[in-house]
Amino acid sequence: MAEALILGALVGDAVSKLSDAIIHVMKTTSQFKSKLTQLQETVTRIKSIVDEIQKHNQVLDRPNQETELFIAQLKSAQDLVLKCEHIKWNFYKRYRQSLKLDDLNASMLRFFQIDVQLQEARDVKEVLVVVKDVQNRMDRSSGGWASSVPLLKGNVIGFDDRVRDLKVEVFKDWDVDDSVVVVVSAAGGCGKTTLVTKFCDDPQVQGKFRKHIYFATISNTPNLKVVVRNLLQKNQGGQQPDFTSDEDAIQQWGSFLGEHKSEVLLVLDDVWDASIVMAFKFKSPGYKILVTSRSTFTQFRTYELHLLNHQDATNLFRYSAFSEGRNECNIPDDLVHKLVKCCKRHPLALSVIGGLLKGTHMAKWQFMLNKLSEGFGQKSVLDLDEDMRLRLATSLDVFKEGSEIKECYLDLGLFPEDQKIAATTLMDIWISLYKHDEKGSATLNNLFELSSKNLATLLPIRKDSLAIANYCDENAVMQHDMMRMLAINISSQEPLEHRKRLIINANDQNIRELPQTINARLFSISTDEAFSFKWNDIRAPKVEVLVLNFMSKIYSFPQFMQNMESLTVLVVTNYGYYFSDLHNFPAPQYLSSLTSIRLEHVSISSISASILGLVNLQRLSLIMCKVGNAFDETNLKIPNKFPSLLELDIDSCDDFVTFPTMLCNLVRLKKLSITNCHELSSLSEGFGNLTNLEVLRLVSCSNLKSLPETMSNLQKLSVVDLSHCLHVCNLPTHIDELGSLRTIHTRGCTGLHELPVSVKDLCPLEVICDEETSLLWSHLKGVKVQVIEEDRFSTFLKIVPREMHYN
């Protein structure tokens, strides 16, 4: 108290001296009168605010930091004002002094508008916390609150907009639905509990539910009797209610709601099973249930909690890394932004890494950035903090150890971050590893499951994709960066020679550390464009899946591929800017077990002979590849090309102009998919030799004008997809001879103006089309027409994720 009185006297003295100086100078010179008048007004305004804060500090027994800062400001201002007296006619000096006065006034205003008001707001918040705590105690003693909402920890950043959006969801249809359930869904560590806690603390929510907000943490193995007991006991004068069973406990909760005439908000935090929510769901006016879960429950409204935007992520990181937000070590902003990027905008990672760097000097920051940098072979944030890794790993507790779905989640770590993973690729892998069906239904089920648990994200797909014979062609998935890090971290717990999945972000050092014999079933190697190290002579006799990710114009396959006698699936992806020329592809005799190859953004001419000689290859996918003359029969002297090939997928290959005659001899081929090949103009007459073909997809081939008449030979063809083939103007004349045809897609076939007469004999037939092309089919008997309206994810000009350039 004495200190506060002394400081108060010092403030008054400093203000008086500055005011006297301003008045004195204005009397002796007229050069700076307007500037000094502004300064006088600013000082007067600030003093009244500081006086109020000084009173609050006396009550709160808080050090008078603001007053001390204000006194320092006043003394500096006094010195600057007195200098004005000695500047008379020197124009340059007057100009410079005038600028200094402007800066002084702006500085004082900033002090008033930012520092002082922030400190005042802090004090008000602390008083509110005290008042709220007292109110909570009073409510509990009177039986008002059943279960206290936890207090927020620290400064909550980036949640104001989220609280606003969540209020819209909870208050929506307030008078229509008797029992609204909203699920806040996100992966572990994203701030679900923080959001609902801040939601309960919102004044509008407080005003709506008053003291009738009930909060219960559920977790993985809830005891409903204990949960309901904690909810009800404070409403029964502190007496613990008695239940004979879980059903009895829930029933008593329902009875309590029936007797309760006010609005009630029940918050169920960390729910693992939707049945728990259903147990608490009763029809009662004004009764709302707010849930947090790592899973997405489709039967309830869902609020998906996304990662922070860059600005909020940066603010949270600064709050965690700097004391009271002050950058005392002068860490460059560029270094801060790079570390924020390494943390993937994930709240838990930002808080942990920021906390590890708090109070350290720039050398430690740079060392941390080097560890976490996006270069290949570096560590992840999970390698630096065990507690964070364990907290994220709880997201997997919903799966049994060794379960197939958990294994599928771990398999996603084979692919680079922020990249789409085709469902067909996963299907090939999971057919090999887990004996999935070839139609992809098991693959899709697993992807839906992973998506519902927020362990992966299913990307938007065509609206009619489910009608494509249950194939995975139109599906893709991406893995959240932190969840990918977790998958890699879990897969890397065992020694290199014993890992089931060996995931290598290659640099010279970690290649040297590879054991001579690898026992993994899945092997992923990622290299950047600077990688040039020669691979060791490694044996990998158990590897069934090999994923090669690289970023170079020339890529040489590792020579140890010749030792992979068990290899069944090969995925080769160039993530660089230019097409990549491939070299050193193993001779066919070394890859006799290979059944599936996916090549993306590469030139295949140099390896086509080797691929064509793979006698057991069943599926080939060419994605955004440079095909060239790879299938020119005059250049290939191989007697039996693709003798076992069942599926051929060609997508976004811009130099694929015509369907080669050589490929018309694939007598075992069951499925042919050519999509987004806008230069494809014709299919050879030999197309009719594909007599075992069951599914034909010619999607978004905008330059294709007609289908060969020999298609009528394809007696096993059951599905034809011509979606967005703009210039196809006719179907085969004898289309009625396709006795197995059951489904045809004609969405976006704007050039198709009439049908062959024989189409009337195709019965039964399902046609999937848009409103315009439906007019061609609607009059036909025995034809079921399904109209799918256009959507923005499926136009004939498919957006390719990277710009392609030919060398």
UniProtKB/TrEMBL annotation:
Domain of life: Eukaryota
Entry keyword Aminoacyl-tRNA synthetase: no
Transmembrane portions of the chain: none
Alphabetized UniProt keyword annotations: Leucine-rich repeat, Plant defense, Repeat
Keyword Repeat on entry: yes
GO MF entries: ADP binding
SUPFAM superfamilies, per the entry: P-loop containing nucleoside triphosphate hydrolases, RNI-like
UniProt-listed GO biological process terms: defense response
Ranges where the RPW8 domain occurs: 1-150
Entry similarity comment: Belongs to the disease resistance NB-LRR family.
Protein name: Powdery mildew resistance protein, RPW8
Lineage: Eukaryota, Viridiplantae, Streptophyta, Embryophyta, Tracheophyta
